[in-house]
Write a structure and sequence with these properties.
The chain is of the alpha+beta class. The chain folds into two domains: 48 residues, no CATH class; 106 residues, Jelly Rolls, CATH 2.60.120. The protein contains four helices and nine strands. Strands 5-4-7-2-9 form a five-stranded antiparallel beta sheet, with no helix packed on it. A hairpin with an 8-residue loop joins strand 4 and strand 5. Helix 1 packs across helix 3. This is Transmembrane anchor protein. Keywords: Membrane, Transmembrane, Transmembrane helix.
C-alpha cells in the first residue's frame, strides 16, 4: 500500500498563489472604480456608480458651501437695504433722503369763502421732506386734497397723496417723489366762511397761497 506525498493539499503551488493574488487585486480595482470612487469622491469614470446610485451618496455627504463674508461699507449696506421689521408687522418701503434745503416751519390761517376752494403750495425738490397738520377753527368739515405736480406740469398732470371728504382736520408727511409744487387744496361746501389753521414744517423753499 503506497502513501500519498507528504505535502499534498497543504501548500499551493507558486503559480496558483500568484494567480490568486492577481485575482484579488483585480477585484479590488473593480470595487475601487465602481463603488469607492463614486461614493467617496464623486468620481465615476465607468458610469456604474451613477447607475447604482452611489454618486448620490457623495452629493448628500458633501458639506454646503460657506459664503465668504466681506467687510461692507456704509454705502454698500444702504444699497443692499435692511430686512428688519417689528414683531407682527409687514415691513414698509424705506424712503429716506439727505436734505439740502434749510429746515423751516410755518403757521398760516386761510379763510375759505362759502362754496370756494383755496390752494396753499410749497416748492419741494425730489427727496425733500414736508410734514403738516391742519384743522378748521370751529370744527367745520371740508374736502381736502394733499397733492403735488411736477415742474412744467401740463394740464391735469398731478398726483393726489391724501384725498378725503368731509374732514375738519388732517395731518401727514411726504418725501417728494419728484421736483415740483406740493401742497393742499380745500373746498368749502358750507354756507359760511371757514378758517383753516395750517402748520407746516420741513425742507421746502417757500410757501404761498395760490
Amino acid at each position: 500500500m503506497s502513501l500519498p506525498p507528504s505535502n499534498a493539499g497543504v501548500v499551493a503551488p507558486g503559480k496558483e498563489l500568484l494567480r490568486g493574488c492577481l485575482g484579488a487585486a483585480a477585484v479590488a480595482a473593480v470595487l475601487l472604480v465602481v463603488a469607492v470612487l463614486p461614493a467617496e469622491y464623486g468620481i465615476d469614470p465607468s458610469g456604474a456608480g451613477k447607475a447604482l446610485g452611489l454618486t448620490r451618496l457623495h452629493s448628500a455627504a458633501a458639506p454646503a458651501a460657506v459664503p465668504v463674508k466681506t467687510a461692507a461699507t456704509p454705502a454698500a449696506n444702504a444699497a443692499k437695504g435692511s430686512t428688519v421689521s417689528a414683531p407682527g408687522e409687514v415691513r414698509a418701503i424705506t424712503i429716506a433722503a439727505k436734505q439740502s434745503v434749510a429746515y423751516r416751519a410755518d403757521t398760516q390761517e386761510i379763510t375759505l369763502a362759502p362754496g370756494k376752494g383755496v390752494e396753499v403750495k410749497t416748492h419741494l425738490a425730489k427727496g425733500a421732506a414736508l410734514m403738516f397738520s391742519w384743522k378748521t377753527t370751529k370744527g367745520e368739515v371740508l374736502n381736502h386734497d394733499f397733492h403735488g405736480e411736477p415742474v412744467n406740469a401740463k394740464g391735469d398732470e398731478f398726483e393726489s397723496f391724501i384725498l378725503e371728504d368731509d374732514v375738519s382736520h388732517s395731518s401727514g408727511v411726504l418725501i417728494a417723489p419728484f421736483t415740483g409744487v406740493h401742497g393742499w387744496y380745500w373746498k368749502n361746501l358750507n354756507d359760511e366762511p371757514v378758517t383753516v389753521v395750517l402748520q407746516a414744517s420741513g425742507f421746502y423753499s417757500d410757501i404761498f397761497k395760490k
